[in-house]
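Hello K.,

You asked for the raw outputs rather than the summary table, so here they are, unedited. I folded two proteins back to back in the same session to keep the settings identical. This is the first:
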Amino acid sequence: MYTALPQTSAEFEQLGWAEIDPWYRELLAVQLTATNVESWLRQWSQLTALVDETNNWLHILTTRDTANESYAQRRACFLDGLFGPFQSADQQVKTHLLASGLEPAGFAIPLRKLRVDSELFREENVPLLNHGDKLVDEYFSINGAQSVLWEGRDVAISQLLPEMQSPDRTRRERAWRTYSERKLQDRETLNEVWVKLLRLRLQMAQNAGFADYRSYRWKQLYRFDYTSEDCKALHEAVRQVVVPVANQIADKRRHLLGLEVLRPWDVDVDPRSDKEPRIIEDVAAVLEQCAGLFTQVDPALGDYVATMIDENCFDLEEREHKAPGGYCDILEVRQLPFIFGELQTINDLVDLVFHETGHALQTFEARHLPYLHQRVNYIPIEFSEVASMSMEYIGSEKMVAAGLLTNDEARSIRISHLENSLLTLTRVIQGDAFQHWMYENPELAQDPEQVSQKWAELARLYQPYIDWTGCEEVLKIGWQKIPHFVVVPFYYVEYVYARIGALQVWRNYLADPAAGLRQYRSALSLGATRSCPELFEVAGTKFGGDVATLQDIVRSVIGKLAELESSL
C-alpha cells in the first residue's frame, strides 16, 4: 500500500527533500479509518525513525570528533536542507491524525503529546530551532577544543579530571587550577553563545503565544504531572531535608582528609584512600566484564550489552577533540542505543557505564512497541532517568562478582556513590533553581555577570560546605560547564525526581531481587504508553519529592552507608 522506504539511515542521508517529500504526501493522502490507521502509523513511524536516526547519528559523529570538518558539514547540510522541511511536514501528518479523531490501541499517551506538539508548532520557529541546534554544536565545539599543557604534554582538558581525584592534595589542586584557568579563557565566548540562545528561546515562546519561555518549555517537555510551583516546593524540601545531611557528609570528608576547610579541589577525592583511582587501560576488556556483570543481574540484560558490544555501540575511549559529557542516543532504525563518554578510571563505572547502560536497557525493553511515538522522546524524562539511575545502584551490587573491582575498591566506590547521591540532590536543585531564576528574569539573564553572580549565590545556599575564597571567578562560571542549561533547558529537575525513584527501585531490589527487577523491567517495557506517575507505580515506587518521601530515602541511604563503613 505504501511506497518502500530506505532500509538504513545511511541511505536516507543521501536523499534530498524532493525525494523524501512524496512519502509525507502519501501519508497525508490517506483517509484514515479504524481499519487502516495501524498500517498508516507503522509507515509514519518508520519514516520518522529514519529522520531521527540520521539526526542522532550525525550528532554522535560530531561529538566523537569535534574537529572533523566533514562531520560538521554533513550535520549542517542535514539541518539546513532537511530538518526544516521535515518539521513542517511532520506537523501536517500529526494534524492529519488528530483530525481523524481515531485513538489506536496503546496510543492514548502519545496522542496527548502529539496534541501538545500541534499546539506549540509554529512555522516561524523552524529556522529558530535549526539555528539553536547550530549554537549547541558551537557550544560543544568550544568545549571539545579545550586542551592544556600538563606535565610536558598537550592533553585534552578532560584528562585532568582523574588528576582532581588524586590523594596528593598539591597535585589535585594544580590539576584543578590548570583546568579552571583553561575554562576561564572561553568564558566570554560561551557567554556570547548563551545570550544568543536565550534570545532565540524567548522569541520562540513569543511566536507560540506564550508570555514567558518557562510556560512554553513546560508544555514542550510534556510536564503534565507537576508544575513550576511544585519544583519550588521541592527546592525548599531539599534545602530543609538534604542540605543538612550534605553538610554532615562534607564535614566527615573534611575530618577524614585532616583539613580545616574543604576547598573546590577537595570534593572529588576519595577521603578514605591514599591511592590514585585505578586507571582503566583496556576499555574493551572492561566492557566485556560489564556484559558479564549485567548477565549476573539478569541474563537478558547481559545479552543486551553483548549486542551493543558486537554492534560497536560504545565509544568510551578518551582522546583529543572529543566532546565533553556522556550520553545514550537511540538509533531507531536499527533499534539500538549508542553510549558515548570517556571511561578513564574505575570511578567512572557507576556514573557513566552503569548509568548510560540503564538508558540502553530501556531502549531494548521498549522496542517491542510497534510505533516510534510509543518510545524514544515520548517517554517521560523523569522515568527515563529512573531507568538509568537504578542501574547505578543495582550494577554496583555486582562489581566484585563480575571481577571488575576488589572488595576494597567496590566498598570505597559504593560509599562515595551513596554520599554523592545525596550531595547531587543539592547540586541539581541548585541548577533547577538557577534555571527558574534565568527564565523568570530574562532581562537580567542576558547579562552574563548577573547570571554568574546568581549561580554563585545559589552555590553558597545549596553547597555551603565549600570554601571558594580566592576562587570566586571560577565559582561564577560553574554553570557554563553544565551542558543541560545550554543544550536542553529545564531538563535537570528530572534527575531529582528520578533519583528519588531509583533509590526506591534499589531498595525494592535489595529486599527481593527477583521481584524488584521484575517491577523495574515491566515499567521499562511500557515505554510511553503510561503517564509518569503510572510508570513509577508499576516500578514499585512513588512519584514526588515531599519532605516525608525525602526523609524516607535519606534514612535508607544513611543506613546503607553505616553498614558499608562498619565493614571497613
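The second followed immediately with the same parameters:
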Amino acid sequence: MKIILAIIFNPFIIYNYFSYGVLLSAIIGWLIVFLYPLPGKGVYYKALITFLILTFSLIPFIQLTTNSFMYLEPIDGNSTATVLWFLFVITFIFTLKLLEPKEINYIRTNKLTMPTTRAGFYIITFLSGLSYLYFISKFGGVGGLLADYDVRLESSVTDHNALKGMGVLQALANVFPVFLFFILVKITRKDSFITFLFLSFMVIVLSFLVSGIFGSRQGVIFVIWSCFWLWHRTKRNFSPTQIKNLFMGGVGLMLIMMPLKFFGSDASMEKLLEFNELRRVNVVAGPLGFLLLRDVGRFDVQNVITESLINDELDIQYGKTLVGGALAPIPSAIFPNKPWSPTDVKNELFLGEFWGYQTGTTLLVGLPGEFIINFGYFGYMLFAIALCVLLTYIVKVNGLAVIDSRFVFFEVFLIPLPFLFFIFDSNVIGFYIFKWLVLFSLVSFFCCQKRA
C-alpha cells in the first residue's frame, strides 16, 4: 500500500506527465484513502480497498504516464471519454460508501469445526475424478493437451477452441482437485505448514493439467485459494507471515505460467524479452506490465466503451448481456443458440486493426464495463449497488459458518467474488458460479453433516 501511495501521490510525476486523466487518477486514489481509512479494519476490508486503489487509481495512472496500450489505440488522457470514466468511478465510490455493509470490515477468519462428510461426498469426488481422467484421455494425454494448445496459439482462441462443448466435463475435472484436497485435509492428522504445502502441491499439479496447461491461470489460482482458505478455516489458522509468503508464492506462480499462456511449449527467455514485439503491444515492463494492466486492469477497454457511449455508437443492452452471461454455463447440446452473448457486443466495439486475422475478441471488460454497456451513464452506480448486495450476502454466509461449518464451502468461493466482479464479464462469472459455487460448494454442503 505504501508503494502505491508513493506513486500516485508524487507531484513530480503528475507535473511531468500531466493530463486530466493523470490528475484524476491521483485524485481518485486520495479520495479512496480519505473515505475508506484502513487502520483498525479487518484484513478482507483492507484487501478490498487496496484493490479499489489499484484498479481505479494506480493502473490508470501507470497506463497514462507510460502511454502503454494493448490491442487497442493509445488512451488520450485529455479526452472527454477519459474524464467521464473517472466521473463514473467517483459515483461508484460514493455509492459504495453509502451502501456498504459495515460488517464487511470484520469478516471472521478464525478456525471452524471440520465438517463431517457423508458417503455422497466421496461418491461425487470419485465421479469428478473419472471426469478428470476422461478429460485428459480425450486429448491423448498430457502431450496431446500441450500440442492442442500450441495449435490454439497459432490460430486464435476464437477460431480454434478445442474445449467447445466440453464445458460441464471440464468443470467437473476442474473441481476434482478441490474435492480431493478436502478429503486429504480431513484424513491427515498433521497440521503443520509443511503438510499443507505438500498436499497443496499435489492438487495444484492436478489442476495445472486441466487448467494451466491451456494457459488458463485462473483455474490454478482458484485451486490455490481454495487450498488456503479450507486449511485456514478447518485445519489450522496461518500466521500473518505465512499468509504473506503464500500470497507472494501465488503471484510468482502466475508469472511462471505467463510464458506458457503466450507462447505454449515453445516458450523461451528470448521470446519474453521480445514480448512487446511478438504480442504487438506497447506496455511498460513487458510481461510484468501486461500482468498488471491487462490481467487486472480494465481501464482501456472501459475507456473505449465510454467513448462509444458519448458518440451515441453504443447500443444500450438494458440487462440483456447480463442475462446472456447467466445462460452461458448451459451446455450447447441443451441450449445451442443462447441469445445476448456479451462477446457479440464486444466484437462490435473492439475488433480493429490490432486484431489482424482474428474473427472475435477475447478482451474482458469486467462487470463495471458491462454495466455501462447495459445501463449507460447509470452503469457504474448500479454496479456499486450490485456489489453491495454481494458483500451483504458474504457477511451473512460468514456469520452462518459460525453456526454451521458447512457454510465454509460457500464462503471459500464467495470471498473472492467481489474482486472477480471487477475483472470478469458476466459469462465468465456465470461459469465461475456454476463450476465452483454449484458443483463444489452446493454439492459439498449437502454431502456433509451439520456441525457448529
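Residues 311 and 318 are 18 Å apart (CA to CA).

Happy to rerun anything if the numbers look odd on your end.

Regards,
P.
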